Amino acid sequence: xxxxxxxxxxxxxxxxxxxxxxxxxxxxxxxxxxxxxxxxxxxxxxxxxxxxxxxxxxxxxxxxxxxxxxxxxxxxxxxxxxxxxxxxxxxxxxxxxxxxxxxxxxxxxxxxxxxxxxxxxxxxxxxxxxxxxxxxxxxxxxxxxxxxxxxxxxxxxxxxxxxxxxxxxxxxxxxxxxxxxxxxxxxxxxxxxxxxxxxxxxxxxxxxxxxxxxxxxxxxxxxxxxxxxxxxxxxxxxxxxxxxxxxxxxxxxxxxxxxxxxxxxxxxxxxxxxxxxxxxxxxxxxxxxxxxxxxxxxxxxxxxxxxxxxxxxxxxxxxxxxxxxxxxxxxxxxxxxxxxxxxxxxxxxxxxxxxxxxxxxxxxxxxxxxxxxxxxxxxxxxxxxxxxxxxxxxxxxxxxxxxxxxxxxxxxxxxxxxxxxxxxxxxxxxxxxxxxxxxxxxxxxxxxxxxxxxxxxxxxxxxxxxxxxxxxxxxxxxxxxxxxxxxxxxxxxxxxxxxxxxxxxxxxxxxxxxxxxxxxxxxxxxxxxxxxxxxxxxxxxxxxxxxxxxxxxxxxxxxxxxxxxxxxxxxxxxxxxxxxxxxxxxxxxxxxxxxxxxxxxxxxxxxxxxxxxxxxxxxxxxxxxxxxxxxxxxxxxxxxxxxxxxxxxxxxxxxxxxxxxxxxxxxxxxxxxxxxxxxxxxxxxxxxxxxxxxxxxxxxxxxxxxxxxxxxxxxxxxxxxxxxxxxxxxxxxxxxxxxxxxxxxxxxxxxxxxxxxxxxxxxxxxxxxxxxxxxxxxxxxxxxxxxxxxxxxxxxxxxxxxxxxxxxxxxxxxxxxxxxxxxxxxxxxxxxxxxxxxxxxxxxxxxxxxxxxxxxxxxxxxxxxxxxxxxxxxxxxxxxxxxxxxxxxxxxxxxxxxxxxxxxxxxxxxxxxxxxxxxxxxxxxxxxxxxxxxxxxxxxxxxxxxxxxxx
Length: 951
Prior knowledge:
InterPro entries: P-loop_NTPase (IPR027417), PDDEXK-like_dom_sf (IPR011604), PDDEXK_AddAB-type (IPR038726), Restrct_endonuc-II-like (IPR011335). By secondary structure, the chain is α/β, with parallel strands linked by helices.
């Protein structure tokens, strides 16, 4: 089917022949120019002088000697004038960062007001009550009265609320702001796009110097649809002056049917404005041609791209010189999944792929580095420190080029010190890229220049190492160009701005950068956004993201001009988006033979899960041949496979176990209890040596709270242990608790008990928790006074024998006992616990039952300490006590079986039974053929190895 642009080319060549070079061809975007030039070349068949090609913005801008102001120049100009107006009203100035979101809306409104030739003074007039409306708008229709009255009702009934009053004051300010803003820009030699439109629309025939360039030809407007009021007026004037031709891409299917929203603006252009369509009266392609439509309902956002290989199978082997297939991304977030899906070659044949949307800088590693720099600079400005998270990201970023040795050195040092925040000066001492990257911004003018220094350093290093990728090189160039442009714009405006706000502006500006990816614009499979398809035609069309809310969009954008006022003045409203979206889809389909709609059927916070209403409309009335497909992603679950680690046939395991038997390695009580609770955990931890990676976090883990408590109790009793402990001595020492807690906190968290620091946030909470725990323990100790402390944090070792394969074997156990007391001649092992440990137990055999529910780790550990201490010291009748700080004020400190405390004769009766069961468990550890998982899930609920053993 002949493309629209080919028909345009044929008609223009027939009309103008050799005079074509005197024409100006104007599109609504740049993309169609290459296609039209190709059609000209094919038709003329020899070298020729090309006509001039413009986008509508470029064409209008060329009519004036003024430059077009970019957004940031507009913002700073607007902000300056706004504060002047506030000063005149004797109101406080508004800061840049607070004004910025308002400015974006105001500037958008101003531009729309100009483009649609709206009288700004009337629009922003204060509509205090209905009588004012009736007086000033007596030319309006009853329907327009209703729109205005409906809007103003909320403001005219009763007393104004403060927010409403502020809004009304701002609205009153708008006419003066609008006029002063445009005057100030013009004084600087600048106009906005909207003001250029208004300037031309006053009477374009007066701009003879501009339009006389095309006296020998015509100004040809191709493929326009929705026109602003300024465009409509300019087009009409040019037609009346016989200066212009119009080629509208229309189909009678939607043009002649007033119920079809797709033809809304074309009907206005042709029927109301009287613009002549050079292609009027053509046969309806929507009705006469065959259209095969495939609808794909898929589950998931990225899944939409994953079916492309099925749809594009024939195109991968196509030999067409000009691309006949397009993948349209209605949802542009699908670009990366699309690129990941379409292969680069099949069976040795390279796939021609052209992506016109551009690769966003914000998705690249370059922006990641820039964003990291901006974030680090904010931290340096605020605290003269940088968070560990940001330093780690810098060290591991692929563009920093730091050696693995350097990364490991710095990260290891920081992990050892557990530094949540790193001093800025310490980072500067590393020199090289560190010095450039972490150089502090001392002036808002230096935000851009310092960032350029960082990028230059990285770019030079990558170029020198010859590791710079093509796409990264293009992104670097584009980023540096944008930063240089920002520097020029900022130079006269940001001297007194806050540095964080300038950082914010740079970040926002860089987020909009994109570069074309690759490919020949005419060949192969084309990937583009819906707006880029204007004027283009393809035999095969695939639209991804064809969801309601995406096509058409569900929001017209932010504006201070309410819907009712917009309707009165003919400004765009939400329904316009429906008509524009419908037209873009319909005109893309009318010449296509094979049409594929893909939409996401899953409902989440981003998508409705419904197909676009345009699809529903086509299904109902078009008569196209529809085929429906649904991609169901099966949820497959694998049958549980029990993971068993074979000991007997694994030399490494046998060698490691033998080290315990040879006393080259020793068993800690926690290792033994881990084996009892879940034998396979023991393998991963103590045999395979798989440890949880150490991380730096501002959040203190539960085990660290316990370590801090142990340290504080050690410091507390260190001096007191030289004599008998009395209640008076404890009471006197309590005064030092806050200092001791800080010392303990620093020792555990930062490996330096004497460091001085300011505690904040969660750290203060932890200090308070430890303080409460210390006082609970001391309250208990006061009830036990007087007593003597024998040792604190004492290391003890002992051997324990057990039968192994018919022989006697033994292992060495060791541990650190929190405290050993003597009271009334009884030696007590004191173990502090901050968790949810229990004092109760069922019986001794159940303590060692790996598949049981009555394992008591705390009891096993304290009895092991008791056994080891008795072996070490030669004492008997040593008693285990457990200080569970959360419950000891209620439950006491003695283990219990039923109602019987584990002390005295009962304890001595239990000890041999405990040792017998322990020996059985050790025999199992070294003799059983497998390491297996416990049958009771609670026994490994908090295991870090769960994913490794199939649970």
